Amino acid sequence: xxxxxxxxxxxxxxxxxxxxQNLATAIAYIELxxxxxxxxxSVYETAAWGKTDQPGFLNQAIAVNSExxxxxxxxxxxxxxxxMGRVRSERWGERLxxxxxxxxxxxxxxxxSLILPHPEMHKRRFVLVPLNxxxxxxxxxxFKQKISSILFNLxxxxxxxxx
Length: 163
Fold this sequence. Notes:
Distance between the termini: 39 Å
Strand content: 25-35%
Low-confidence stretches: none
Shape: globular
Radius of gyration: 15 Å
Number of helices: 4
Number of strands: 8
Mean pLDDT: 91
Largest sheet: 6 strands, antiparallel
Structural class: alpha+beta
């Protein structure tokens, strides 16, 4: 089933292989299979978060127009990850590509396979810095705060470098 067009804010992350190419390939697949990517943040490099004994990550936030239901969008994103060679072996482990749905319009959703907005995004500098670049004025549908305000008040001190 299709919905009216919504903006999905996604975060891409990679710490294996040709990281810059992995981001570009994921965006190409997203445009081909999901919808128009109309905003892209700069690419940022960060140390690993959560499980720190692994290579650093490149992260990029994108905005895509989609008419898909959120769970169908998730299914397609997981298929893109798999097509690119992602293997899920451990939580927060190394990955060729990771594509997270941060927001889907103003959807608030609690499903066993998808929680919207992303339940940890407001605690993570590596999410908020690139997201702020393309959606600083977007208002979090639960916290009722702009992304820029959430970032400003963030306690996470992880260093996030623009490439």
